[in-house]
UniProtKB/TrEMBL annotation, chains A, B:
Protein name listed in UniProt: prephenate dehydrogenase
Catalytic reactions on record: prephenate + NAD(+) = 3-(4-hydroxyphenyl)pyruvate + CO2 + NADH
PROSITE patterns: PDH_ADH (PS51176)
Domain (Prephenate/arogenate dehydrogenase): residue spans on this chain: 6-295
Amino acid sequence: MAQIYGKVALIGLGLIASSMAHAMRRGGVAAEISGYARSQATRDTARRIQLCDTVCDSAEAAVEGADLIVLAVPVGAMGVVAEAIAPHLKPGATVIDVGSVKAAVVEAVGPHVPDGVHFVPTHPMAGTEHSGPEAGFASLFDNRWTLIVPPDGADRAAVERVEAYWQALGANCERMEVTHHDLVCAVVSHIPHLIAYTMVGVADDLSRVSDQEVIKFSAAGFRDFTRIAASDPTMWRDVFLTNKEATLEMLGRFTEELFALQRAIRTGDGEELFDYFTRTRAIRRGIIEAGQDTDAPDFGRAKKHDR
Amino acid sequence: MAQIYGKVALIGLGLIASSMAHAMRRGGVAAEISGYARSQATRDTARRIQLCDTVCDSAEAAVEGADLIVLAVPVGAMGVVAEAIAPHLKPGATVIDVGSVKAAVVEAVGPHVPDGVHFVPTHPMAGTEHSGPEAGFASLFDNRWTLIVPPDGADRAAVERVEAYWQALGANCERMEVTHHDLVCAVVSHIPHLIAYTMVGVADDLSRVSDQEVIKFSAAGFRDFTRIAASDPTMWRDVFLTNKEATLEMLGRFTEELFALQRAIRTGDGEELFDYFTRTRAIRRGIIEAGQDTDAPDFGRAKKHDR
C-alpha cells in the first residue's frame, strides 16, 4: 500500500478511468477519489456501483482540491475539458491524460494549464473491447506498458511522481518523445484497429455470404478482428482524426505491402508468399519471449488440453 | 465411446492430424490408427510420443486395410498423395481431406479416387498458431465447426458416416457447396490471415520503429495480428495459391473499403468513421451470442479480475 497522491479527480468515467479507480483502491494509491462524467446516465451508474468516493455533477467541482487530475475523455474532448477546469486547479497539482495520441493532446491541453500546475501526458497501453464505468477492473494495467510522454521542460519531480503512480497501479512505465509515440502507436495499435474495422465491414457488406455464416465460422481468424473492431467508436474516431499524419503514412506502407502479396497470389509466386509468411513467425516468437502474450494454443484463448 | 471406423490412416502428422489422433483415442472413435509423414524427423517424433498405433515409412503402407484415410497434408500436396495411395485403397474405404480450400482439392484428388472408394472433402475450422505432431490436443475440434463438402453424387451413407466421425471428435458439422465454401473461407479466414501477415510485415520493415518497440508494445491490438500471422507458412502459401479467385476478389473489396476510410481520415470526416466503427460492434456481439467466443475482457485472454 503506497499512497502517491491525496485527492485524485477522474474526468471521464469509462473503461480506463474506472479501471484506475479499482486499481487505486487495490493499491491504496490515493486518499480520496472524485469523479465526473458528462452524461447523467454514466454518473448515475458510477454512483450506483460506488466507483468513486464522490461523483460530481461538474468537472470543476470534481477537480476542487485535487492533487492529481486525470483527463480520461476522448482525445477530441481534451481541450474543452482542460479549458473548463483550468481556473479551478490547485497550485502544485498535476494533470495527466490517458489518450492514445499525444501530439494533438499536448497541443490542445498544454495552453490551458496554468503556471504552477504540472502537465504530464501518459498513455496506458491496455484495454478491452468493453466500454463504460462498469467495464473497469483493477488488474487492467498489471504488467502492461504505460508510456510517459513529458513535454520539453516538464518538472522532473512531477514526472517521476506520475511514473510512481502508474507503477502503483501495476503498470510498467517507459518514457517516449511525443512524435515518436504517435508513430509507434500508429504501427502497434492504430493501424491494426483500422484494418480490423475494415475487414469486419467488408464481411458485413458481403451479400453472397450471410452474416450468419460470418458469425458462425468466425473462429478461423476473423474472430480476432471482430474482437479488436468492437472497441469504443468515439475513442477510435478521435484517434484517427488526431493522429492523421502517422496513420496515413502507415496506411500507405500497408497497402504497398498488401499489393505486393496480392501480385504474388495473382502470379502464383509461392516462394515469395512462403518467405513472407515465414518472416512473420519471428516477430510472434519475440512477443511471446517478451512476455507480452502466452504461448498457449488456440490463439491464447483459455482452453483445456485433455490428451 | 462410439467406434465409427475400424482402421484410420492419417497421412500427414501435423497439428490437425495429431489432434485427430488424440480426439479419436479420447472418444474410442477408431479401432486402430496408422500414420505417415513425409519427413523422417516427423515420423520419429510421432513414434516417440506414440501418436499412432503404427507409424509407417510410406503412405502406401499406412493406408493398407484402412477404412478411413485422412489426407492431412498441405493443399498443394493432396493430388500427389492421392495418386500414390490410390492403388492401395481398400474397396469400400472412405477418403477425406482436411484442407482449408475445397475446389482445388476436389480437382486434384477426385480423379485419383478408384471406383468403390468414397471421397468426402471436409474442413475442420479449428487451429492454433503451432504446427507439427506435438502441437495436437484432443479438444481442438470441440464445439468448432467442421464443414462437410460432398461433391455431386457422393454416397449418402458414406457422407453421413464421415459426419458422425467428426461429431465423435467433438465437432459441429455443417454441409456446404464447394464454391460457396471457398468464398466463405476467404472472408472469415483466408483474407484475415493475409492481412495479419501483411501488417506484421510492415511493422517488421519499419526503420524508425525498432522491433523491440513493436514487440514491447504489441498488446495494443497488434498482438492479435501476430498470433494469426504465426500460422504454418506452407499451409497458407497453398491456401492462397489454390483459392486465388475468391481471395483476389475479397482483397479487392477490402482495399476499396480501406481507401474509403483512408479518405475519411484525410478529409477529417469524423461522422463517417464513427458510423463505420459503430456498425462493426454488432457483428462482434453476434459472435459472442453465437458462442464462438467469450465475452471476457482483455480480448478474451485469460485474466484475473480482482475488483
